[in-house]
Amino acid sequence: MTDLIPRDVLFGNPERAAPFLSPDGTQFVFLAPHDGVLSVWVRSVDRDDTRMVASDARRPIRNAFWSPDGARVLYLQDLGGNEDFHLFAADPRGGEAPVDLTPYDGVRVDVQTIDPHRPDRILVVMNRRNPQLFDVYRLDPHSGKATLDTENPGTIAAFADDMTMTVRAGVIMHADASNEIVVRDDANAPWRTLAHFDPDDGTPSLVGFTVDGGGLLVVSSAGGNAARLMRYDLAAGTAVEIAGDAAYDVHDVQFSPKTKTPIAASIVRERRDWIVLDPAYADDFAALAAQVPGDASLTSIDRDDRTWLVASNVDAGSVTYWSYDRTARRATKLFAARPSLEGYALSPMTPISFQARDGLTIHGYLTTPAGVEAKRLPAIVLVHGGPWVRDEWGYNSTVQWLANRGYAVLQPNYRGSTGYGKAFLNAGDREWAGSMRTDLLDAKAWLVHQGIADPLRVGIMGGSYGGYAVLTALTFEPLAFACGVDIVGPSNLNTLLASIPPYWETLRATFTRRMGETEAFLREQSPLFRAGEIRAPLLIGQGANDPRVKIAESDQIVAAMRERKLDVTYIVFDDEGHGFARPENAKRFNAAVEAFLARHLGGRTEPPAPHEAIDAFVR
């Protein structure tokens, strides 16, 4: 067995992360610790003149980018995990305190568009006028003056603007979960329908306009199974395919800031692949494939499209970041996010697939402990949240931690996960406690049948929907798993839907279509009302400020279990929201999880350090 990897190495702050290139390509902003808290730093590309420019002692900053003229560094920050993000601006020289550009209580801001060729404005969306709706504002990145640009007519869930930063497209979700793209010819013209999408087609994603303004680029599965990149002609209403795959969805589309045209689209199959859309970039993507290890993704491009910043993701090592010179076609490594991992043996991640009980193919990823034969191991079925996302190949701190402690880790992309086409996605509709749940039982059965897992030592763990999946596993099939770890998981689907954030109201039709429409049906799918069936030990983690899955979701199932004297441990962090952003909380919680799993499954443990004491957070 390999050496224990300390939790501080796996879950402490990265040394450096998330670089983002300045518009002129001479500097980049990145995240790194300051006084133990993830903060914003700036340095030049060609020399290390690093300086810290923004920090929040209460909470890590987890994103940073540039104003369109490169004169200020911007970042989004909430308070205690409440997800009411404000937009802040900092001096890249580090000489001035950051300024809150959107100082509106109870308001959430998201960035719509930053164009490095239009330095005097950015477009943001805010629910300042109505908590349930986002309007588009023009924001001066220096003064912070916000001017209403486009008022939401009350139905639009997402906007798109053209090359002149004129908002000209939107997506409407109807009550039956069908969707409609509306467009207009200019800022003063009325909205008109461009295309309708059946509920089975899911929600189209607006990618952007063509340079001439006559076409709209959309990722949609209409007319096929997998989501493809389509070009809609605004005058004729017709659509043509630009890129796609028969089985896997288009995941991301990369544009050139200089030409404003799409250059490549990514598709995540077992691993990430790129489809080059512009032949002028074929040699660049070939150079990246040859020089950068693992799966590469572009994080930022300078305004002249000469320098790229690239993230490299491998399975058994730290994420690394690279600069790429298009003129020389040469990639240069900047840094690793967690260089301290290099001293430890990490475990490779292997793509797998198995047949569910109804014959549907389920894809996923298996990671087993390095240096140990993969036979009759204790195991964890690790369930992703969402549920309308998917797990991908690459480094994952939680997976490496569990594998290092001796567990086989299986990450199934159960039905209802995205990326595998609309038939696979729609197969999860109204199946949260049905076939989505039995897919996880079939994942366990696959582990056992392969001889990898000891059938009596398989646990289940997940966050958000994954936490709900843990609760359904332990209530609907009480003897299937030896223990469970639920992180911010809902226990009652009716109270969950009644308490979603107001700015999700335009998306409510998706929730009701995919979860269920009637109170009686949702009650049947809710593990709270089966709490008395639980036989396996359960550990629950919750953030007190969670706006998505309110603390009541965990409170009520803990109360139901304790009333019946069932084995539950409940940990709450008063300064967290939907998940644990502060590394000190993540390490405390994971120390408790590690001891819990060792007690019930028999894996290895690292003794808790003094800074990982959990007693004050147990309720």
Automatic annotation (TrEMBL):
SUPFAM superfamilies: alpha/beta-Hydrolases, DPP6 N-terminal domain-like. GO terms for biological process: proteolysis. Keywords: Hydrolase, Protease, Serine protease. InterPro entries: 6-blade_b-propeller_TolB-like, AB_hydrolase_fold, Peptidase_S9_cat, WD40. The keyword Cell cycle does not apply. GO terms for molecular function: serine-type endopeptidase activity. Residues 393-603 form the Peptidase S9 prolyl oligopeptidase catalytic domain. This is Peptidase S9. It comes from Vulcanimicrobium alpinum.
